[in-house]
Amino acid sequence: MSPKRKISLSEEELVLALRNREKIAVEALYDMYSASLFGVISRIITDTAIAEDVLQETFVKIWHSFSGYSAEKGRLFTWMVNIARNLSIDKIRSKDFKNQNKNQELENNVTFIDEQRNTVYKPELLGIRELVSTLKPEQKSILDLVYFKGYTHVEAAEELGVPLGTIKTRLRMAIQQLRKHFN
Amino acid sequence: MENVQAYIESGILELYVLGDISPEERLQVEEMAANHSEVKAEIGEIELSMEAFAETHAVETSELVKTKILNSLLVNLGDDKTFTKPRKHNSEEVFEDEVDNVIALPARRSNFYKYAFAACLTLLLISVYGIVNLYSKLQESSTQLTAMQLDKQKIANQVNVMDDELDIYRDTSYKVLKLKGVAKSPQSAMTLAWSPVTKKVVLDMHSVKLPAHDKQHQYQLWALVGGKPVDMGVFDLNTDTASVKQMKSIAMADAFAVTLEPAGGSAGPTLDQMVVMGGTK
């Protein structure tokens, strides 16, 4: 296995290969999605060692419950990132984790972690900082809470002290903003 | 159409993509997506943007983590292939081959453990038996040892007594006095040894010929010093079984006498119960 070469397949090919339990599918899956999944996990869990454990748990779970994924219900990444987020949230809400770790302040999260780690800046993604700055503060905070801190929208409404409907609207607006940016 | 648009605008599709939704709502969204292509398209758009958003936040893992995770997955893959494949073959050879590979090895191994376990169990039983045996032997010997020590002590005591007896004969200062029966009991007689030097008075219990007494009475020895009786202690024909009995000490005596007294002795002699008497000169 050459460490430099990364395997990339189309999503359909990957799903098919995973269904057939092919070895190449495992590597392709890892090469294509580990960084994105680890990005999400390590924003929920700031301890690198624990985040790496959760990443492993995530891949094991993806591998074992792959029969539960169906392409009609959505994209592969959506299914996987929800597994990763659920495992991460379970971990930070577990007793032993709470005892050994305090979460960091919300406000500085994104930039702080970006400074801490060697985040990959792909050429097409160079606009990330502008992107984050194009989001309104309340859109940014709702995305942080729900996407990176593992809050449910109900918990986020309580945390921010706004009605549920407002939370949903803000979340939608934030994602609309992202769509505009990426298209 | 109005309804569908309102449904899209409600924000529930975003929550659906984020997985932050109840199972009932999930079914509802999936039904809507199945029936309305614009809902399905909207979901796809949201998914793509969230995926892109995640990519902008991607964090590369180290090679070490990659190797570790891939290995753990590939181990699983090996198992999966071994245990899920042998369903659809048509050649018998392959079948046998795989059966050999899959079953023979674990079977041999489990046999080994079975024998090892049996051997361990046997060893354990033998050891337990040996320990129990040794323990009972140890108990036996320590009982014997105690008994022998008791014996030894008894013999040592006896030797001491004998030594004392011998001393009476060796020590020339001892006088052997024969006490004769008085008029009341002419058959009575006994012998005692007295040493004015060591002041010891020893009764020769074998020589005592006195009328038997009951449990309420004991014989008491008296020494007469200048006409006055001095208590020399009591002796009991029933319980004093040793061959000699040492009495109280006295340096000077004119005569010795024995009277029958209530058990434990009296302060002064009951003269009409006197049985034997003898002078020292």
TrEMBL record, chain A:
Domain RNA polymerase sigma-70 region: 29-96, 133-180
Highest taxon in the source lineage: Bacteria
Matching Pfam families: Sigma70_r2, Sigma70_r4
Keyword list, A-Z: DNA-binding, Sigma factor, Transcription, Transcription regulation
Alphabetized GO MF terms: DNA binding; sigma factor activity
An annotated GO BP: DNA-templated transcription initiation
Family: Belongs to the sigma-70 factor family. ECF subfamily.
Name of the protein in its database record: Sigma-70 family RNA polymerase sigma factor
Biological source species: Mucilaginibacter glaciei
The organism's taxonomic lineage, starting at the top: Bacteria, Pseudomonadati, Bacteroidota, Sphingobacteriia, Sphingobacteriales
UniProtKB/TrEMBL annotation, chain B:
Gene Ontology terms: biological process: regulation of translation
A cellular component term, taken from the record's GO annotations: plasma membrane
Entry keyword set: Membrane, Transmembrane, Transmembrane helix
Residue span(s) of domain Anti-sigma K factor RskA C-terminal: 117-270
InterPro entries in the record: Anti-sigma-K/W_factor, RskA_C
Gene Ontology MF terms in the entry: sigma factor antagonist activity
Transmembrane segments: 115-135
UniProt name for this protein: Anti-sigma factor
